[in-house]
Q: What sequence folds into this?
């Protein structure tokens, strides 16, 4: 991967002079090859990261923007432009994502907005975790995230039904918890529950010693088993209760249970589809590169775990086989949630193959690994 950087504009030139200088440096140095570029302000902070199949054409395009266009606004604050060539458009897309993820530049709102379109079910950390629906991947590395989903409202209702059925809390993070097994000789009286959910049996009451930490942990494990497709969770119990209500002619209650079953079933279906989509994004993907710089990307569950030059000799083929064993050898349960750090990459890869279905012809299944 080659790199070219523009020198910073001289101290003090006016806007027009500085922009003219930047343009002449781009003209002199940039080539029409795939790559990523960064535009930075006078203090060196990166304002924008972009990618293009033709870096030179893309960068020169900024100088033709109308004053009210985003490109012109970025340029007005730019003092440094640098770019790095990549072997292909796909490589540039990945490099762009990783740079944005690292630098989070102020003008890269599109990716942030794209991520915000998606909802995730978050299982919080701590002694009494709760299920929580968030928009966009919140940056909490200790939490577990399931998704992405579209339609946050629908997911929120299903999560509420699941939490109610399992007795999981849904209160604020800073509500103090007191488990039954934490009671000491010096505990004074009973606490008042923080909300009505304990009284109406929707929450086990970890805030008022209503359960032991173990009981609560078991319910969280059940919720995770449901989210990971290892259990049907409370659906079976709801069905039994619904049938009993119908026999007793309690039709209103039976209808409420039916709605909860429908929400949970829809969520389960969506989780199954996601798991299938993730598993289908596991393959070796060979991408032709600039001047023969072809690369093989080792994709597992929707994220690029490694890349290597496309092998041309037996030695290179053996090296790729070793890398393949490293990447795909260790077991990884299909139900495991996608690590937070990889969610945006999963979204990027699935949209890449949706936009370029022909590229699937360049993928090949992971070869069977021998012990
Ligand atoms: S009963 Fe207590 S732990 Fe449960 S949701 Fe209400 S405040 Fe939270």
A:
């Amino acid at each position: 991967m080659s790199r070219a950087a523009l020198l910073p504009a001289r101290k003090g030139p006016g806007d027009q002079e500085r922009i003219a200088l930047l343009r002449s440096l781009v003209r002199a140095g940039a080539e029409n090859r795939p790559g990523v570029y960064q535009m930075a302000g006078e203090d060196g902070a990166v304002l924008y990261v972009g990618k293009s199949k033709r870096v030179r054409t893309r960068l020169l395009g900024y100088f033709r923007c109308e004053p009210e266009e985003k490109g012109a606004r970025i340029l007005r604050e730019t003092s440094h432009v640098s770019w790095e060539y990549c072997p292909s458009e796909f490589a540039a897309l990945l490099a762009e994502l990783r740079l944005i993820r690292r630098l989070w530049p102020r003008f890269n709102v599109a990716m942030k907005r794209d991520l915000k379109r998606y909802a995730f079910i978050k299982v919080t950390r701590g002694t009494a975790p709760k299920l929580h629906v968030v928009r966009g991947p919140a940056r909490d590395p200790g939490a577990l995230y399931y998704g992405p989903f579209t339609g946050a409202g629908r997911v929120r209702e299903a999560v509420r039904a699941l939490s109610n059925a399992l007795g999981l809390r849904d209160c604020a993070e800073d509500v103090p918890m007191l488990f039954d097994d934490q009671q000491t000789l010096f505990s004074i009286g009973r606490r008042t529950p923080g909300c009505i959910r304990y009284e109406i049996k929707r929450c086990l009451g970890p805030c008022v010693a209503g359960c032991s930490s173990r009981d609560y942990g078991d319910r969280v494990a059940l919720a995770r088993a449901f989210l990971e497709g290892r259990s049907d969770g409370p659906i079976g119990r709801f069905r039994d209760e619904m049938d009993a209500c119908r026999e007793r002619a309690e039709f209103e209650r039976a209808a409420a249970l039916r709605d909860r079953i429908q929400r949970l079933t829809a969520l389960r279906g969506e989780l199954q589809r996601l798991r299938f989509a993730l598993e289908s994004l596991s393959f070796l993907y060979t991408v032709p590169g600039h001047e023969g710089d072809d690369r093989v990307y080792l994709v597992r569950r929707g994220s690029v775990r490694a890349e290597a030059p496309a092998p041309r000799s037996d030695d290179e083929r053996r090296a790729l086989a070793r890398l393949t064993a490293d990447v795909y050898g260790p077991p990884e349960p299909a139900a495991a949630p996608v690590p937070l750090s990889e969610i945006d990459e999963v979204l990027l890869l699935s949209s890449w193959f949706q936009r370029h279905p022909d590229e699937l012809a360049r993928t090949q299944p992971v070869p069977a690994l021998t012990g």
User: Anything to note?
Assistant: The pocket of iron/sulfur cluster is lined by residues 169-171, 175, 193-195, 197-198, 203, 205-207 (CB under 6 Å). DSSP finds eleven helices and eleven strands in the chain. The mean pLDDT is 87.
